[in-house]
Amino acid sequence: MRTVLVTGFEPFDGATDNPSWAAAALLEQRQPVADTRIVAVELPCVFDTSLAELRAAIAEHEPELVICLGLAGGRTDITPEQVAINLDDARIPDNAGGRPIDRPVVPGGPAAYFAGLPLKASIAAMTAIGVPASISYSAGTFVCNHVFYGLRHFIATESPGLRGGFVHLPPNLPIPRLADGLSELIRTCLETDTDLKVPAGALH
Predict the structure, then answer these.
(1) 202 in any annotated domain
(2) Catalytic sites, residue numbers
(3) Residue 203's pLDDT band (boundaries 50, 70, 90)?
(4) What is the pLDDT of residue 202?
(5) What domain count does the chain have?
(6) How many other β-carbons are positioned within 10 Å of the β-carbon of residue 162?
(7) CATH code for the domain of 37
């Protein structure tokens, strides 16, 4: 049986909950993909510990796919991220009070990594069931991008057989609907080797 690790974040910036963790937990409860075990893990919204906990979860569960989730206020679609950049630049402190400014995620690492997942096919699968979805080309410079870049760097340097990426969730969709869309994304990532050749770029 295949294993998929799905992570969400704890609440941050004074919030009492975080839809990314609620969606991850619901996916583990539902187990919506045949012959696949979905394991949900909550990550701290802390620069200095989030990647260590992600690596520990990967070592424990040995997934073939990792999907990290985060909350993107102001967005209305589920947005898989295409690009992770090697930059921490925190507008607000993390949950431990950390606020790195213009610091690399990995000193000496590449400037950026692409997701390496069939994002366009995933968008098509989610929109086919009525869940709004689009590709994002900026994961920001807070803990979400930190985790995304750290995951992609780990894959590139230590675990080339692993696949993984990051998905931002909007605050306006109900958790069950987020889980519906993410189920399609996970299924597509597991079953699709070649992405769709359709336009999905941005003008800004």
Answers:
(1) no
(2) 81, 144, 168
(3) low
(4) 78
(5) 1
(6) 17
(7) 3.40.630.20
